[in-house]
Design goal:
The protein contains no helices and 14 strands. It has strands at 4-6, 11-13, 19-20, 33-38, 40-41, 45-46, 57-59, 71-75, 89-97, 102-105, 119-124, 126-137, 145-163, 170-179.
Length: 180
């Protein structure tokens, strides 16, 4: 019983007799998970122009330095009215960084960001996490997550059997290129 939280990426492989459980069957820790990998992020920076649906670049002014391969979260300051949770976010990967304040991204912007205050945040992601062959029993009223990957990149999760609880089985938050 307990929690495994790591700010380092690695491969976690269980076996047929491996059963993981939260600290208690009634665990309600708000940031809790039986297994949690978490990266960090830099301070948010203002964008100099609205991210446009279908564009292959973002415009920003000073503050943070982006390099090829960085994962960046775009957000237009929109929140859900019922609980003030941030919504309308998108992750993009830097394809070409220049000193001109225009950064090319892989693919194109897929959201329509329209709320008004546009920011970008460089994520310091944990790269290449794999979690395989585990059974997780969350108990009867536990609200913790079974697996939570936060600010991660290249995540593979397979053959997980999760029972019980009221939390999310597998939560991928600010995660780029995940396969479950």
């Amino acid at each position: 019983r307990g929690r495994f939280h790591s700010n380092k990426a690695f491969h976690l492989k269980g076996g047929p007799n491996v059963i993981l459980k939260p600290a208690t069957d009634t665990d309600t820790t708000s940031d809790g998970a039986v297994i949690r990998f978490f990266g960090t992020e830099d301070s948010s920076q203002a964008m100099s122009a609205q991210p446009v649906f279908g564009a292959d670049q973002i415009a920003h002014s000073g503050g943070g330095t982006l390099v090829v391969g960085d994962i960046v979260r775009l957000w237009d300051s929109h929140v859900r009215p019922s609980d003030n949770q941030e919504v309308n976010k998108e992750l993009v990967k830097v394809r070409e960084a220049t000193n001109s304040g225009v950064t090319k991204i892989e693919g194109t912007i897929l959201s329509n960001q329209t709320a008004g205050t546009y920011t970008y945040t460089k994520l310091n992601t944990l790269k290449n996490i794999s979690i395989h062959d585990l059974k997780i029993e969350l108990g009867t009223t536990s609200t913790v997550h079974g697996i939570w990957c936060y600010r991660a990149e290249n995540v593979k999760v397979s053959n997980i059997h999760l029972t019980g609880g009221k939390g999310t089985s597998i939560r991928l938050q600010d995660t780029y290129n995940a396969h479950v």
